[in-house]
What does this fold into?
Amino acid sequence: MKKFLLILTLSLSCNLFYAQGWIPLGTGFNQEGRVLYADTILNRLFAGGLFANVNGHIQGGIAAWTGASWDTTITGFDWAPVNTIEEYRNQLYAGGSTDYNGFTRWNGTSWDSIDVAFGFGGTPVWFCEYDSLLYCSGLFNDVDGFYSPRIAAWNGTNWITVGLPPGVSAPEGVVASIVFQNKIYFASSFYDTLTNTAFSLLTFDGANWSELGNNLGSLIYCMAVYNNELYIAGNLLANGQYIYKWDGVNFVSVGGGVNHEIWNLRVIGDKLFAVGGFTHAGSVTANSIAIWDGNNWSAFSNDTFNIAVDDIAVFNNEIYVTGGFTRINSDTVLYIAKYQGWYLGESNIKKNGGINVYPNPAYNTLNIHLHSYTTNETVLITDVLGEEIYKETLNGIDNCIDVSKWNEGVYFIMIKSQDNIIKEKFIKM
It folds into this structure.
């Protein structure tokens, strides 16, 4: 009986300590969050969106999370839907329908009022740094009084007109841009009036333009480079799959796609994460968050969001999401949440004394890097019940273990040498 109680107590303790689930960040926002950005300058997680109230305080458009609380020293705007946030030349920039005409930066104590206006009633939607310039794209015809339809570039002091090549239009605006293969790629529903062709990709190398691909559809929201391949996603795209991969000639299916819109794509560790309003990815049930490993889709969790997830980010080794949701499962969670129980670093390296374990969580392989190595060191891996899962003599500083067939859960690592024992844990997903 005592043994049973001890095992039950240990089991409950493990379940409590490693409990997984979404938790709110204070009382959250009063309206939708659109974008997350983990800033390395201020060490804050910035969130931008439609909100005017953060955690019960008036703060429009942008807010900063320390990892434990909202940083009220970093102010918001009077009313400012923020669409994009980016570091450029060691300064943080925000773009959208702000009270600074859509473009502002943090100067260390406040947001700079950069005197610039975007014509055609438009706003910047996406920032991307390329060739030492901050490219700004969106739905506008001019910037700072100069004609520069849909695309302009900022050098830190002045605007440089870029626009679209002659004869090319983008009626829906240019939302997504990314650097790929030494060029900047723009995605939209483009039309070339000179050749009467529609296409979805426009590339620029600083001097020359190229038109690529067939017309995927009108609502392309995001792009990502994963495994040195370009992915494009959005809503109402061709054949209803919502995400495609560019193979250099054509757009190809990504595991059958998802069943509704994708708002953003993020590479985390060795996987591509998609977030949006979908419920299935390929043949897998995946509510609002799905993971692509290059061959197959999987779900991040079994939780249900009542409205779409707009963005996902890693900050201080933890996963955060924002969007239009107000409930996760049956719990009230207002527009932003953190996932408790999974610890993901952008480098996916978790340090502990003389050992690095990555990626963490691990999917197919687990890498163990030793800061120093002596012969006859062994690694022992057990599950939460203490059962031995793996034991082997290490071959040197860098070691790789195949965990693809292991059950999902928490595992403990112990490295033994003649005069030292190092302990670590990791999660198998």
In short: DSSP finds one helix and 44 strands in the chain.
